[in-house]
Amino acid sequence: MKKKTASMPKKNPLSLQLDISKFEKANDEEKFLQQRMRESTTFFKDGMRRLAKNKLAMTCLIIVVFIVLIAIFVPMIYPYSYEQQLGVTAGQSVDSSYNNLKPFEYGETELKRMEEGESIFPHIFGTDSHGRDYAIRVIYGTRISLIVGFFASIIVLIIGAIYGAISGYYGGKVDLIMMRIVDIIYSLPDLLMIILLATVLKQTLTPVIEGTGLEKLGVGMISIFIVFALLYWVGMARLIRGQILTIKQQDYVLNARSIGAKGGHIIRRHMLPNCISVLIISTALQIPSAIFTESYLSFLGLGVNMPMPSLGSLAAEARSGIFTYSYRLIIPAVTIFLIVLSLNLLGDGLRDAFDPKLKK
Amino acid sequence: MNEQKNLLEVKNLKQYFDVPNGILKSLKLKAVDDVSFTIKEGETLGLVGESGCGKTTVGRSILQLYKPTAGEVWFDGQLIKSKKSISDFRKQAQMVFQDPYSSLDPRMTVSDIIGEPLDVHKLYSNKKERAEKIKYLMDLVGLSSEHATRYAHEFSGGQRQRIGIARALAVDPKFIICDEPVSALDVSIQAQVVNMFEDLQKKLGLTYLFIAHDLLVVKHISTRIAVMYLGKLIEIGPANDLYHNPIHPYTISLLSAVPVPDPNIARANKRIHLEGDVPSPLHMPSGCPFRTRCPKATEKCAESMPELKEVQPGRLVACHNL
Hints:
The complex is a heterodimer. By secondary structure, chain A is mainly α. In chain A, 67% of the residues lie in helices and 0% in strands. Chain B has one domain: Rossmann fold, CATH 3.40.50. In chain B, helix 3 crosses helix 4 and helix 4 packs across helix 5.
């Protein structure tokens, strides 16, 4: 460009004559600069952009991430463990000064060591009636509750999605029979079923899992997962079936059949991607409900095995000292409240962001 | 012309649907009733008729998207019936859909939409070959290959229909069923797409079954035209003959409804208005389905359905009163 202008005759600055150099043909490089290709937005990016605009949902997301990070990492670095009874040392009598400490109080031996100049990590929430640090028990209980919530939702998602997709896709008699099974499961009183199953499973499973890694997890936990796998997928299955029935009528499914695609291919490539938003939303809303269920089961004594804590069992234990140590009930209760509330609000935000019918 | 072999033969195709009517009872909806025709290699058969007369169902039944109630479809000398023959058939016969908005999956990129037939029939050995084929197909239908990573909703109707056509061409078919491919597009785009169909036919030696209700478009693109009324084929013949000299009373009134872009001629032409409505396909009139509205109907028409008879060379008409 510059070279060419230099070869032009010099122009009088006051002349009104047109500057010819401005009318030269653009070369390829300049043409390329004029191209404005908008970044092609994917469905996921588009949804995330809308989610990021929702302040309430983002706040909840931050709270959830914060709680998850604490639940994962704090037990790794914390000086006490959830099952360690601080007053019990091998070969000595139990030091009862460690039991029922108030927040930021210390046991007798700890006070002695502090006088000698040692620094001791404080018991932020005090200790429980067995002399175990309460803060780590709450954090560990949160971890357990989150694990239950997350994996139970995954189980529900997998079973429900596959069942619903098959029922909706094949339709007709298959659909009729599969949906009647769902109706039957739906009409069972779930709390009764859970109590029954938990009792029966406790009897049968205890000898089976003895000595394996599952023993530490406890029969209660396993039966919670089984209960979810047996009972709670039906809502998801119905939802997915409804979606699949709508998508099945779409022209692009007929189009895929016309090129010779088989059932599996159509379900994988067309149907599931097109109901992914429903999957995301309902899973996000399933997690808090699973945490809630786990909490009240643990509260009723059907949950995790002692000494392993969960938020529900911590609250249940705290009932005995409800007037003297009311904070022991309040702390796990507030934690459950925070997790469930923020996950629910986050789920609502996801629905607003990913449901194409609510697109703004 | 006569030397060309028949690529597709449809013999006595019937497609009935059950419509529930009360508990455990159902009525037969005769969407396609005893339709037979042939398509020669390299030609275009236009299929016309009013809405709901079963044109689309004919196309879908040929492709075995619905299981035909009765009748045979022969393609290239092979009966399309067994699973093997259907899956082979689908590599050679493709379909372009009416609505370019709903017939493309909104969650797939253009390259995935066009590449899907290649995936289904495993027509490539590596990813590079797949990408090259997609690029070639996009060039073929006049799309910029830079748009391969975009989603279908980012395109206009005409461009979407081009995507649909590229997809149909992906398996290198011999025969394409065009199910009202231009009726959802506006007129200027219609012309482009119709011309593209013609170019592709010349370039790739394709055979079309072109379903439409726009008679002008059909006349422009077709070698022969078939007219349907209430699931039955009533007239078939070379495009120009049929257009200028319709024989069946229904075809005559159908052609009189074609708008003429010249007000003087349009005023001189008398439009034939048919009496009454199209009968419900659930309660078909006896004999000829058109008799309830036909100006020439006689008692004989109520008794039996007229057969397709050759009245002039290459022209078949189903009417008693000729």
